[in-house]
Amino acid sequence: MTPSAALTDLPLVDGHCHAIFGGAPDPAAFALAVTEADVAPPSGVSLVDGPAGLAIRRWCAPALDLPAGAPIDEYLARRAELGPGEAARRLMGAAGLSHLLLDTGLEGPALAPPSEVGRAAGAEVREVVRLERVAERLAAGDVGASAFAGAYVDALAAATVDAVAVKSVLAYRHGLQIAGDRPGPTAVRTAAGRWLARRRPARLDDPVLLRFVLWCGIDRGLPVQIHTGFGDRDLRLAAADPALLQPFLRAAEPSAVPIVLLHCYPYHRQAGWLAQVFPHVHVDVGLTVGQVGARADAVLAEFCELAPFGKLLFSTDGYALPESYLVGAAQFRHSFARLLTTWVTDGALPPADADRIAALVGAGNARRLYGL
Amino acid sequence: MTPSAALTDLPLVDGHCHAIFGGAPDPAAFALAVTEADVAPPSGVSLVDGPAGLAIRRWCAPALDLPAGAPIDEYLARRAELGPGEAARRLMGAAGLSHLLLDTGLEGPALAPPSEVGRAAGAEVREVVRLERVAERLAAGDVGASAFAGAYVDALAAATVDAVAVKSVLAYRHGLQIAGDRPGPTAVRTAAGRWLARRRPARLDDPVLLRFVLWCGIDRGLPVQIHTGFGDRDLRLAAADPALLQPFLRAAEPSAVPIVLLHCYPYHRQAGWLAQVFPHVHVDVGLTVGQVGARADAVLAEFCELAPFGKLLFSTDGYALPESYLVGAAQFRHSFARLLTTWVTDGALPPADADRIAALVGAGNARRLYGL
Amino acid sequence: MTPSAALTDLPLVDGHCHAIFGGAPDPAAFALAVTEADVAPPSGVSLVDGPAGLAIRRWCAPALDLPAGAPIDEYLARRAELGPGEAARRLMGAAGLSHLLLDTGLEGPALAPPSEVGRAAGAEVREVVRLERVAERLAAGDVGASAFAGAYVDALAAATVDAVAVKSVLAYRHGLQIAGDRPGPTAVRTAAGRWLARRRPARLDDPVLLRFVLWCGIDRGLPVQIHTGFGDRDLRLAAADPALLQPFLRAAEPSAVPIVLLHCYPYHRQAGWLAQVFPHVHVDVGLTVGQVGARADAVLAEFCELAPFGKLLFSTDGYALPESYLVGAAQFRHSFARLLTTWVTDGALPPADADRIAALVGAGNARRLYGL
To answer: Is C300 an interface residue toward B (CB < 8 Å)?
Structure first.
């Protein structure tokens, strides 16, 4: 069996994803959801006319009975004809996912509830709790500065009873250049007072509190997923290099709590090194694989330059469009199989190892790490 | 028609280039002009014996009636035999350029006037005005600190009457780690006083004034080209990462004035992300393609990982040697066609889209952006 | 003759390596020595199951009479059967090295003496003296702060009588973000007083003294090797980008003393630029090639994007395991030959140049640079 075949038949564990839109996006909303852009491009430029859009035309059109590569207008017309529910079932079903590890930290009326996402995918849903969101919910109540730390610990415990992981969006709120050590009680109390005193502390962006919730995540003992690398422009890219986390990774190492670096691109080689030298660090290829489309062969290869194969994790980072799940899964199956086949052909990889590695990265590592 | 054929026949718009030497360089001057080095290497090392030199031997030798890959000594002998005028006409003519967008900010008796460059290339010349140069010309006169800001605005307006773009060399003068916002009138006046008070303010390197002229460029409404990434060693590479421009890009976004990140290597993946998430940001592959020679296939592919195809622009960054125009154009045609063909073969790209994308990157995007 | 054949028969100069273990490592010690990790991974993960481990199974198994790609357990059993001495002779002999430039700055009872390493490899051993080690030996004596600078100069002169190069591990002790200029006598005396006053100054980590010993290395006139890029987690990766050395490289340029940037990954493109624009800067591919295994084709190609071919140097960075020498050499021969063949096939490189470049990078550049 070639690595390609091994991956074709393998139910994938989607180690990091979000909910889909509950309804049908119009063409403009669809185009925005294809990439990380959040405003429309100037006249003459289409966000769909890029690697991620090509990947949708390639991998998703057949699930809607169109030929691979069908023009985007035909694709959207067919999608509208089927309706959002049928399109989601077809697209997410074709992704072949056994589990969805769903970050529930993004909310809004436009998003479908987790159970509906799981039904569309035919997959078991497990929750990933966003650390900052728990603090923000707390701040919406009447907690005071002195009680904040204790209340957060309790709230996080309650929120994660059934969760398989927690997640940090530090990269969006401050950047990854933080001190490694856990902030002391006084510093947390002072920072909480400052933050809560703002009229509407909708967004946790205080660097002390961001470190505090990250350490509370470590204390919880569940794997900690950390957004690193690119995303939308709300983050500063140069501050999202996972190598900047090195002081924190070193400080957290004695806990032995697994840390999963998400996305990583264009700093994925740095992430691979971190996964090699820190026993608790793992790397997730989600978002990147879907966004770079046909270039995923090369980018996955770069992820594999230093990281042990037992530390690499598949995910889609699917969000909003059911297409993002299918593109993430199909492009991964295709590109990772091509990469492994290249190595087998080069004589660098025994075929039996290729199948084994495909199964690890696609599902086995996640099952072990998240206790599925 | 394969993408290769589409690109072979396409007149390219050279979105960023400079003048050529007026006369014939001796072998040492020729060798220095091949790369970004500006001093000779130690004994035993040749600057021509690298990727850029190989690309010259490959792409330029046939234009001088020699076989591709002819040894550099034979090449230089044949070049001398033909004389600089005939060599320039052959080399630049073979580049197949319809327009040259010429940065006129480099001056000197050794450089040919723009019109002569255009004649040699058989191309229409349009001007790109270097923002810092306008300030430096002003400082050579008798402007005072209080009048500087107003005088600069007037001088820039006059200098750009017929221009299609302006250009910033901030990377060479300070680095790209600047505050995003426009400096206020007082700060500009103070900085102008400080700068003009130096005996010979030949070089604009004051960070406040550099930001000021950049914002004046935005106000002009023409596309703003910004040098990013590698160049000669007069810049500090780590300070030329275009991701450092993020605060400025965010601040300039409401203007909707197009910004073109030039060169970008080795930070071209960062540039691709900027082009995806900021509607006004575009990316130019010039200099990089010619300098990396046969590696242009891979580097162009990396440029294409996140950027929409409508945001990518060809240029040669041709300078001094007519060879740099031909190498930039020929290597681009060859490598971009190979990249697109790879995607077509992989099933990732419908052939009709390949031809369309080739035409966009090679000419269409520049025609739209620069109003040609 | 294809580039592959040229490289197969070429005795390589190993421009940077260390001693091997004197005895036989147990499986856990073996696994740790395969990568840059220095603690065991969590249950379910093997450090051998990654690119470097695959490369050992591929390149080393045949030297022990096993088929390429034999499972690691079989490999270790066969290795134990042969005994460490026979295994070392077979593995290092198969590497085909003419010279070992051995960094003698790592000591310990577990390491074999240089002469034994040379015998196992059938190669001539030449010494590379670690600059920081000379200071640390001095501090173990009774030198005072005032006498330190002079004593260091004398000690370095004595230590390097037969050396071919010196080496800096600044990246491990402080990071590469240093001021470029040579520290003055007063600053050195003050720093020496501070450092020597610590009870056991086992480790030179004072930034002033680190710069001082680096400049003493320059004064010695021998090539200065500088660790850059990845290594074990004792360094901070983001501070190991060789581009951070730019102020020092500029300051040291008038000396014309060659500087060799070691390893470089994942900042090897930055290193290639430095080698292009600074006449005295060279780049060594050691450690990287062995660690990335089958990905060495692509990574070597990236090293070759800007650097002149006369500035690129092969080494293994072999250390502890004789396997690291063979993997470094065999993977280099294989991958560099494949790269050159790709260029020949593409029409980018005349075949005669391919053979010449292979000989330069594999041996000729090192012979010239280190005076072998």
So the answer is: no
